[in-house]
Amino acid sequence: MNADRTARLEKKIAGLARTRYIPETEAGESKQLASQLGGVAWLPRSSKWPRCKSCKRPMHLILQLTAADAPADALVVPKGKVCQVFHCGRTSSCDEMGYASTPDGHGKLVRLIDAKSAVRAADPPDHLALGRRIVGFASAPEVPGHGDVIDHMAAKLNAKELAAIRDSEQRPYGKTKLGGWADWIQDVQSDSCTKCDAKMRFVLQLADEVVEFGDGLAYVQQCPAHPEQFAMGWSMT
Ligand SMILES: [Zn+2]
Ligand SMILES: [Zn+2]
After folding, report:
1. Has residue 123 got a pLDDT over 90?
2. Which-ligand-closest: CA of 229?
3. What is the 127 CA–ligand 1 centroid distance (Å)?
4. What is the mean pLDDT of residues 164-187?
5. Does the pTM of the predicted model rise above 0.85?
6. Which fold has domain 3-235?
């Protein structure tokens, strides 16, 4: 394509930009209920540490995020709630690659709990990844990779533009982040809400910091109308 056409196409794609938030962390956990990667989760009072529905072992906490820390344009954590992402860690046996809805689903658990009645887990499992508290986010605008551009704009693009996008190497940020656009390693994954059937929205991406996804990435989506409904999947490189 010539320079004019390329500029026009880039302008169209820029219209899809979203803000991504890369967590900034420090070693150690807070004594209060706080946002963190890894470590010991806070649990609803008198509930047990979550176990994998497949192998029955305790799962790893990957991410805990308070409502105050959740960027509203990335994911919805209603006031008074805390979002938690757990994973079994046995990616080959317990969590077969595909997207699965959660809080149900095997090998993974993404849920919202009430902050008010949450207490630090009294008896956390051994061998948890050391916790890192989230102290801030580095935010920046981000445009989608080629798969999502085609998914969201195919009707507005001509054949030359589609071909140019398919050939492009453009990829969103490829590590742990909230919001922005997924760095799909394989095909674009999409799922719909089990309650309302609406298409879910990509809300966060996790690299190998706590659980190994085969040097790949895990992706979490959320229903825009039912914030307690999530889907989680992963891809390896
Ligand atoms: Zn398991
Ligand atoms: Zn829904």
Report:
1. no
2. 2
3. 15
4. 92
5. yes
6. Hypothetical protein YwqG fold (2.30.320)
Whole-number Å distance, alpha carbon 89 to ligand 1 midpoint, is 7
For the residues 114-138, what does the mean pLDDT come to? 93
Each domain of the chain, given as residue ranges in start order, spans: 3-235
Q: Are 125 and 49 in contact (CB under 8 A)?
A: yes
Residue 87 Cα, ligand 1 centroid: separation in angstroms?
8
Taking CB atoms within 8 Å and a gap of at least 24, the contacts of 125-128 are: 125/49, 125/57, 125/58, 128/38, 128/39, 128/40, 128/60, 128/61
Q: Which ligand is nearest to the CA of 225?
A: 2
Coil, strand or helix at 148 = helix
- Count Cβ atoms below 10 Å from residue 121 Cβ, excluding itself: 19
Strand 100-102 relative to strand 217-222, pairing: unpaired
The first and second tokens of residue 12, run together, are 């169209």
Given the structure tokens 């009072």, which residue do they identify?
Answer: 45
CA–centroid distance, 171 to ligand 1, in Å, is 31
What is the DSSP secondary-structure string of 12-46? Answer: HHHTT-EEEEEEEEEEB--SSS--EESSPPEEETT
- How much is the pLDDT for 98? 63
Listed residues: CB within 5 A of ion ligand 2:
193, 195-196, 198, 223, 225-226
